[in-house]
Structures are given as structure tokens and as C-alpha cells.
Design a protein that fits this description.
The protein contains 22 helices and 22 strands. The protein has 679 residues and is α/β, with parallel strands linked by helices. Among the domains are: 95 residues, Beta Barrel (OB fold (Dihydrolipoamide Acetyltransferase, E2P)), CATH 2.40.50.140; 197 residues, Rossmann fold; 158 residues, Rossmann fold, CATH 3.40.50. Strands 6-7-4-3-2-5-8 form a seven-stranded mixed beta sheet, with no helix packed on it. The protein has a seven-stranded parallel beta sheet with strand order 12-13-11-14-15-10-16, sandwiched between helices. Strand 2 and strand 3 form a beta hairpin. Helix 8 runs parallel beside helix 9 and helix 18 packs antiparallel against helix 19. Bound molecules: adenosine-5'-diphosphate and magnesium ion. Magnesium ion (MG) binds next to helix 9.
Length: 679
Amino acid sequence: MAVSAEEVAHKLGYADSDALILHLPLRYEDETRITPLREARLGDTVQIEGLVEHSEIQNRPRRQLIVQMSDGDSGRLYFRLLHFYPSQVALLKPGARVRVLGEIRPGYFGAEMVHPKFRVVQENTPLPERLSPVYPSVAGLSQYAIRRAVEDALARADLSDPLPAPLAFPESFPGFAAALHALHHPPPDADLAGLEAREGPAWRRIKYDELLAQQLSLRLAARHRQTLCAPALPEDGGLEDRLIAALPFALTEAQGRVLREIRRDLARPQPMNRMLQGDVGSGKTLIAALTALPALAAGHQVAVMAPTEILAEQLYLKFHEWLHPLDIDVAWLTAALKGKAKKATLHGLADGSIRLAVGTHALFQNEVAFHGLALVIVDEQHRFGVAQRLALRSKGAQIGHASGDWQPHLLMMSATPIPRSLAMSYFADLDVSVIDELPPGRTPIVTRTVSAQRRPEVVARLRDYCLAGAQAYWVCPLVEESEKLQLRAAEESHAELALQLPELKVGLIHGRMKADEKAAVMGAFKAGELHLLVATTVIEVGVDVPNAALMVIEHAERYGLAQLHQLRGRVGRGARVSACVLLYENALSDTARQRLKIIHDHNDGFAIARADLALRGPGEFLGARQSGLQMLRFADPLADADLLEGARAAAPGLLERHPEGVERHLARWLPRGLDLFRA
Ligand code: ADP
Ligand code: MG
């Protein structure tokens, strides 16, 4: 039964059959010519035409149909079918004329093909004039059905260029219709290897169009944001000067610059949508506190959110330290908060008596109502999952209604820098501020990679270090499959180290502990009552103990690069010479070795992110599946950086001068609406 084009489209995951014009081939088969058998060499993929001389079904070593054919003058070929229908057996009788396409291999009887593509034909059946596309498929969908559906879509669709060259694309590029034709039906002399590697003018046009659609939609989203209202917050009532004057240090120049950028945003009556990037330890928390001041001075509410309890608590302590002297109270809300205390906090947020709250995503649960929330700050933004980000966004809209139709300003912070190429494509509608400088007086961290066999030496060094007055972290192996196993690994390391280091006080902290237990351990470590803190990755981000100068990471090869860099950033925060020891197991894969080398060679988060991106590609790097970020199908912002630059430059003029064409272009590329590219 013939499958309809609609059905094919749905099976392939498209909303409708129009989308099939951009269902592009993976590779091609050359059915345009017949190769005489005597010219076919072993290993070649060729098409042979000839007559069946003999065919039979064998049952050993497995059931198969063996067909012997000859192309007359030049030779004999055997081909084997491992799956076949009775109707095919009937067709492949002696005397039948067949065309087979496949790879010639040495077989038991001579040259053979295993499961070639074959077709019974008449004498002089014309050969196709174009290469045959092979499309990405799913189970139960034949290439034949896909080809027909794609043909059908191509015949029906309007393939004209909705946007004109040279404004929309360079004049040297083929038109959209020509590019599609060249990709779906390349001529026999086309550069097959190039096409399959997705190179050449036709592919460039397609990739460019995709990037252009992305740039256009991001700009439209940004433009939409400009229509939203937010409270303008130009004044801080002198709070900023008071806070800065009370600090034992001066802001770095980079901190001063990003603060001015943020203050400029806040002064406008549109919601800020800014990402603050800064390497581990660059002092983002202070910027967060300073960002809150204008909103607080105006009598509005501010919510500060961190991905974990430990982090939320660290934020809380810093905010309290800096803001309490200014008579600003900091409230606290996490999932662990229960009973009366929780009730009081919810009340205070709803009636506006609490103006500043720090917490986890518990801040954005349904039961929480705000009263004039003007600013949301999200720390370690990359660690929040899709669900949490969506909840935050819909909460933003809700808050908008409750507060006279405004949206709160949004400041996101992250220590995982987005390389420029990705920032320009996926995050083009975000404003980005970068703290590209660490506070002075930091000592660079010395990183060593050491085989786990030398663990006793490492433990001995650790003892000397701690007895000299420093503190250290011991980070336990990551066990991704199971939190339970992870916990056990941590407990084992703790027991073992406590035994090996009787002269040291050794603490343990892990994700399964209750919030107050964690707080007690962290507090003891901070106060210097513990020498060594054995930890799981709960200490990954944000933890700030300047006297901790040594970190040992077990099974470092199991961690991601960003994670290792974050972990390492827990040391090197004071004046002591700091070191990070990456223990690895001996049988390292090549990639694992490369990754550890990156961490060893670089101390700068941006350099690490670039290397990581090059190693893993944008999809993995951004955690696209996890974050729900729509990835590009054809273009790669790194490899196609020149196309990306071009599309980015073209977008504003096109929006200005050809709004209808833009709409058609987007309908072609983003049929499911303009929201697709937003995180
Ligand atoms: P991160 O950017 O990783 O969140 P933090 O905000 O935790 O970094 O800052 C790391 C440490 O640096 C904190 O102890 C903070 O108080 C301190 N700090 C921040 N700004 C400065 C500065 N300008 N000079 C000196 N120390 C600073
Ligand atoms: Mg931080």
C-alpha cells in the first residue's frame, strides 16, 4: 500500500508534508550507469545488469536466497538475499533481467554482493539521469516511500526565494530552488564526497538560510521583549556607595564595568535580560548584591535563586553580610524550610513585607506569591533544568499580571562561559556582560595529573600541607548511574582517609545529607575546625573558603571539563599557593587523556570552554537535549562561522525592509512557531 506524503512526514517527525523539502539526503546511490562486471573491482559499489542463470534457497549456514547472474560477455556475479519474500523468489527465476546495486566482495564462489539493492527490469529500461538520494529514515519506512513523498512535496511547494539577494544572501549563492534541486537530485558528475560531507554551494546556501532563520527569530524575540514593561530603577538611594565603602577591597575594573551595564538596563522601563559571565571566583555574588539595591531602594521585591541548598545558603550568608549593615533583611526559602518558618516567609512575600529573598527553585513554586517582584537573579544558571526554567518564565508572566502588567528584570549568572560563536547564535537575544578579570592577590592554581597508583604519595603530601595550616578538599569519584553508589564511594574514601590521617580532622559532606547537617559541616570547615573535607560534587560551585588551598579529585577522568574547572575553582581563593591534583585510573582513553590535558594546561574558564566545545560539538556542550534548546539541523556555528556572521549582519536590514519575506522565510524554516530557538 502506498503511504501518503502526510504519513511519511509524521513518521519522520514533521508537522506536515511541506517540511519534507528540507528532509535532505544522507548520501546518494549512482544508478545512472551500468558497470560491466569485468571492470568492477572488489570493494567498488556499482550497478550491474544481467540475466539470472540460477537461483536457490539454502538453509545452511542460514536461510538465504542465492542468485547467480551473468552480464553476458564479461562475467558472473552471485548475490545473496538474507530476507526475502516468496514473490521475490518468483521474480528472480532464470532468464529474468535484473539490476543490482551494491558492493562487490570476494565470496565463496567468486565475486558476490550481500543483500544488494535489486530491481527486475525489461531490456532497455532507461537509466535515471540523476543520482538517487538516500534519506534519513525510521523503522518501517522505505526509501521508496520517502522519495515519493519528498518528490510530491517539492512539486507542490513554493521554492522561490522569499528574500532577495544581495541583501538576504550573497549573489554568488545558488537560489533556494536550485540548491534544493542540487541536493535532492544531483547530476551524475556531482562531487559525491563533497555532497556527503555537506560541502559546496548548495549546502552552504541551505546552512546559511537556516542560520538566517535563527538570527531573524532571535531578533524578533528580542523585539518582542522591548514591548514588555518593567519598573525603571534608576536610583539606588545611596545604598551602592555605602555597600562599596564598607568592603575591605575595591571592585575590580571588570566588576565596575558590568555593574554599569546592569545599572543602565535597570534604569529602563523594559525588562533586563542579561547574562553575567565570569570565571569561577571572579566575584559575581557581589555584583548580584549590588544589582539588587536599586530595586530595594524603590521599595520593590527581589528574588535570588541558586540551584542547590548549599549554594543558596552561601548566597544568603554573603547577602546578609553585605546588606544587613544597610538595614536590609534577607529572607530564606528552600524546600527544606517547613512549618511556621515557611508560613511566615510565604506570608511576608505575599504581602510585600519581605523585600529580598534568597533560596532555591522553591521560590518559584505555585504556592509562592510575590508582591511587586521587580528583579530575579539566577545564580549558576546553566545548572537549572528545563522544567525549572519554564516554571521561572511562566512565574514571570504571572507576576506581570499581579503587579500591574510588568515583567521583572532578569539577571542570570554563570561560570560556564558560552564561546562567542554560540553566544552569537543560540543566545543572540540575551545581553551578555563578562567579568574577565579575577580579584588581585589570587595565586594561580598549580594543576597536576597523577596516576591513582601514586595515591599514597598524594596522601602524604596532603598531611604535610594540612599540618602546615592549610585546608584541603578531597573530591570523591562521580558515579553517574547511582546516587547510592556515589554516596558509598564518598563514605569509603572518608573512612579510609580518616584512618590514614589520624592526626587530621576529616569531615564528610554529600548530597544526601539534610540541609542543616550540610550547613554544620560547611560551617566547621569554614571555621577551620576541619582540616580535610571529603566531598561529593555538592561543593562544585559557589563554595568559598579562602584557606582551602589543596584539592584532590579522584577519578578525575569521569568528570566533565566544566565541572573540573568549577571544582578546582574552590581553591586558589586566598593568598596561599594552591594546587589541584587530578587522580586518574591508568587505562585512560584518548579523549579522556585529551580532556585532562586541557584542564592541566589552562586555568582560564573561557579557554577551557572553547577547547571543550571543539572536542564535543555544540549539542553536547550546551546539553541541548537536557536544556530543551533547539539545535540547528544543518549548520554548525563553529564550522560555519562565516555564514553565521553573514546571516547576523543581514538580519536587521531584512526585518526592516522585507517583513513579509521574513515571515515566509521563518514559516519555511520554523514551521512550529517562533519560539523554537528560545531556551
Ligand atoms: P564567583 O564569581 O565564582 O561566584 P564569588 O562571588 O564567590 O565568585 O567571589 C569569590 C571571592 O572573591 C569571594 O570571597 C568574594 O567576596 C571575593 N571578591 C569579590 N570581589 C572582590 C574584589 N573586587 N576584590 C577582592 N575580593 C573580591
Ligand atoms: Mg558564585
